Amino acid sequence: MERWRSLRCGSFFFRIFIQTKSEKIIELDTPTKARMMPMKILAWLFMGVLTAQAQLAVTVLSPKLTGQKAVVPLVMTNNLAETVESARAICFLLDDQGKMIGQSSKWVIGGTKARPALEPKHGATFNFVITSPQPFTTTNLTAKVSFSRVILAGGQVADPAKDVFIEQVKKN
């Protein structure tokens, strides 16, 4: 059995086609589509801003080479509502062919007086230092960082997959 139903939401009219399998398809009239497009774009942008703000934002800068060491700077900003007591991350150093040539795993937030907890709306930096037994043969290196554990105030454990946003900065 097929039915059409009209709904009014503010000054916009929606025509909903309901099929027998409980699938709802929203069909808009042409003038309404033209009015709704800018609003849809603004709504998606607004939702993206809200989503990005409720996370621990991490920017991974390009590695800097000095002899047998590579330094990978991390810039972190706590956009969560709670204090981040500690966070553990692993950094993989890859060459231009994608082969791993080094790694390091450290607590990047918390644990010592030198690295205190990260309060909401505050930022911190951390430098991963990856050493190699021999000098690096290429200067075109890429760092991949992932977080394995994030502990919030009161011992509450956050989900790194949802609560950490990692942005890679490309080399110029």
Describe the structure.
By secondary structure, this protein is an alpha+beta fold. The strands form 3 sheets. Strands 4, 5, 6, 9 and 12 form a 5-stranded mixed β-sheet that branches. Strands 8-7-10-11 form a 4-stranded antiparallel β-sheet. A 3-stranded antiparallel β-sheet has the order 1-2-3, with no helix packed on it. The N and C termini lie far apart (60 Å). It folds into 2 domains: 3-53, no CATH class; 56-168, Sandwich (Immunoglobulin-like), CATH 2.60.40.10. It is elongated and about 45 Å long. Helices cover 16% and strands 49% of the residues. β7 (84-94) and β8 (100-109) form a beta hairpin. Mean pLDDT is 78; it is low at 10-14, 16-30 and 44-53. It has helices spanning 30-53, 160-163, and strands at residues 3-9, 12-18, 24-27, 56-60, 64-66, 69-78, 84-94, 100-109, 123-131, 142-152, 157-158, 164-168.
